[in-house]
Design a protein that fits this description.
By secondary structure, this protein is of the alpha+beta class. It has two domains: 6-97, no CATH class; 105-251, no CATH class. It has five helices and twelve strands. Helix 1 (6-35) packs antiparallel against helix 2 (47-69) and helix 2 runs antiparallel to helix 3. The longest helix has 30 residues, at 6-35. The termini are far apart. The chain crosses the membrane at residues 48-69, 81-97. Keywords: Membrane, Transmembrane, Transmembrane helix.
Length: 253
């Protein structure tokens, strides 16, 4: 009895590392999401599922080591437990995530910004952009739920905060609920900057902040219509002034 082949040893080591990395990470995310102010997750990871898989991994490792110490031959079934467990766990994960969007939280937030900008742009006139919360709220309601957790609980819906007499978009949002759209109308009423409360794209857990990428906020811009222009203006990721938004005028309920 010379023990398992080198290929079997390497297979078990790889499977053990994969199980620990995937489900150890899931368990860490699940526990961290419960305490973090904001998490860039659409749904909280299942701590129970991750714990069960890690527990079975421990059992499989114990059986593997017992067979290795006793120099069980290549045909010992205990050498197959970790590979089989990895395949089953990954299959269950694929079943659980079926039908879910492949986009992550920053991408979904950017899509929501673009949709809101397109809807608001349609209501703009030659003289001004829409500025009443009551007029804009239906566009917010149509966005569904934000892709964020607040203290481990999914945020149920986007919110709207309208600010008047602005010189630029909101760049900071301390203490604001994730999923809040900041709609900042310029003093002349012909332009509005839209940003979203959430987290920077590079951060998964943390305090509320404006959705940004590489330090720059994701900004959508609504403009007054140009006479004779029928197309919706593109307004995502334009150059933005460095000045913060003005005073809150009409936050939605």
């Amino acid at each position: 009895m010379s023990g398992p082949a080198v290929k079997t040893l390497l297979t078990n080591v790889v499977c053990l590392g994969a199980l620990g990395w995937i489900y150890g990470g899931d368990l860490s995310d699940a526990l961290r999401a419960r305490t973090a102010e904001v998490s860039a997750l659409q749904t909280p990871p299942s701590a129970v599922h991750a714990s069960v898989v890690l527990g079975l991994t421990g059992v499989g490792l114990a059986v593997f080591l017992a067979g290795l110490l006793r120099k069980k031959p290549e045909g010992f079934k205990g050498y197959r437990l970790l590979p089989v467990l990895l395949v089953i766990a990954l299959f269950l994960d694929l079943v659980l995530v079926e039908g879910k969007t492949p986009l992550d939280s920053p991408e979904l937030g950017a899509v929501a910004l673009q949709r809101f900008q397109a809807d608001a742009q349609k209501r703009a006139t030659v003289d001004a952009v829409p500025s009443r919360a009551q007029e804009l709220q239906p566009f917010v309601d149509a966005l569904g739920a934000p892709p964020y957790l607040e203290h481990g609980v999914p945020v149920p819906a986007y919110a709207l905060q309208v600010r008047m007499d602005c010189e630029g978009p909101v760049r900071h949002a301390p203490g604001t609920r994730p999923g809040t759209l900041f709609y900042c109308v310029a003093r002349d009423g012909k332009q509005a900057w839209v940003t979203l409360g959430g987290l920077p794209a590079e951060v998964r857990f943390g305090a509320p902040a404006v959705l940004s990428q590489r330090g720059e906020p994701r900004v959508a811009v609504v403009r007054a219509q140009v006479p004779g222009e029928n197309e919706v203006l593109e307004g995502i990721d334009l150059d933005i002034p460095a000045v913060d938004g003005g005073e809150a005028a009409a936050p939605s309920p």
